[in-house]
Amino acid sequence: MHISEGVLSGGALLTGWACSGVGIAIGLKKTESEKIVRTAMISSAFFLASLVNVKVGASSTHLAFLAPMGLALGWGIFPAVFTALILQAFLLQFGGLLVLGANTFIMSFAGLAAYLLFGKIISRAKNQGVIFTFAFVAGAFAVILGAFLVGVFLAMSNRIFLISAKIILLAHIPLAIIEGIVTGFMITWLRRISPEFLAIS
Questions:
Q1: 66, 109 Cβ separation under 8 angstroms
Q2: Residue-averaged pLDDT of the chain
């Protein structure tokens, strides 16, 4: 769900940088030194997953593991996503530097929201079926929220993009289902074998 370079207005770009800047600052403050390696590993997984993408209008769709990142890192998702995106931009010319703030906020906030809304429920659940169900919902929710935020930023720039925003939202529905399933299996497995890996534990 990258927004392409040259699409957003100056106001939307500044809003993205301001919001992501606050998130990165909080994330760095809340990331303990012993969790830096975990954050780097998850950032690397996101870096690789988001390279496989399909162009959809002024944006693109791809697996992103937003909810698993949020559930594992909490606020630490902001510096993790920012690091991956800036490396993509410099090393592979993927994405853009001006729109980096908006893209960081869109994907990080979606994962953080999944953590804030579903983290406690998943951490307290004992039944694996319940864990899978809420992890699935968290994964699908993060993708839909991310696609919605892409639409918000596009609409902030030009009302003409509203049609494109609706197309982007619809295009992300199949991805939301896939990512929900992947998240369900991933979080259920982590809760069973390594619950300390998750920020919700």
A1: no
A2: 87
Question: At residue 178, what is the residue type?
Answer: I
The secondary structure element, H or E, covering residue 105 is helix 100-124
Mean pLDDT over residues 23-45, rounded? 89
Q: What is the DSSP string of 24-87?
A: HHHHHHH--GGGHHHHHHHHHHHHHHTTSEEEETTEEEE---HHHHHHHHGGGHHHHHHHHHHH
19 pLDDT exceeds 70? Answer: yes
Structure tokens that stand for 3 in this block: 């927004």
State the Cα–Cα distance between residues 123 and 81, nearest whole angstrom.
23
Nearest CA to 168 among 180, 181, 155? Answer: 155
Neighbour count for residue 44 (Cβ, 10 Å): 14
